[in-house]
Amino acid sequence: MHLLTISGSLRAVSSNTTLLDAVALVAPDDLHVTRYDGLAELPPFNPDLDVEPAHPAVTRYRAALVAADAIVISSPEYAHGVPGVLKNALDWVVGSGELIARPIAVLNPSPFSAFAYPQLVETLTVMSARVILEASITLRVSGRQLDAQAIAADPELAGPLREALGVLARAASDGTAGDAR
Predict the structure, then answer these.
(1) Structure pTM?
(2) Could you report the per-residue pLDDT of 115-135, keeping only the tens digit for each?
(3) What's the topology of domain 2-174?
(4) DSSP codes, the chain
């Protein structure tokens, strides 16, 4: 099974990206994890430019989404909202539909981030993605200076992360596991 991870942060050292790197470390052997790193390459969304042939970065992004059986997104919160770069990426697939019925988990690395998470879930739901709520968890990672290996080695972080991945993988396999919104 192929899992695509997407960080909503472009920072070189981001708790969101680090958390997603930990996902790759704790994932079972039958779950192939790929991190998508092309958000900065996507042009600003403009419906007038959403034509064939699509911009090469948009084509690569859409292909990465199509190749995934499930997706995990981790996003920071900026000014009580989803960062523009992530919202831009989502806008590029509203009309083309790559997220329709796709099982998605949303990871939140900060219990203090209370606004972006529900906004992201709402946006994904409106786009007809299957947000698997049981696999969408908040872990206290931000501000702790942990790298991916430290997250994977910490039972209080790795345990819930493994459980979330299991729920997401079951949802992707049979289409029924997990509470989807």
Answers:
(1) 0.94
(2) 999 999 999 999 999 999 999
(3) Rossmann fold (3.40.50)
(4) -EEEEEES---SS-HHHHHHHHHHHHS-TT-EEEEE--GGGSPPP-GGG--SSPPHHHHHHHHHHHH-SEEEEE---BTTB--HHHHHHHHTTTTT-TTTT-EEEEEBS-TT--SHHHHHHHHHHHTT-EEBGGG--B---TTS---HHHHHH-HHHHHHHHHHHHHHHHHHHHS-SS-B-
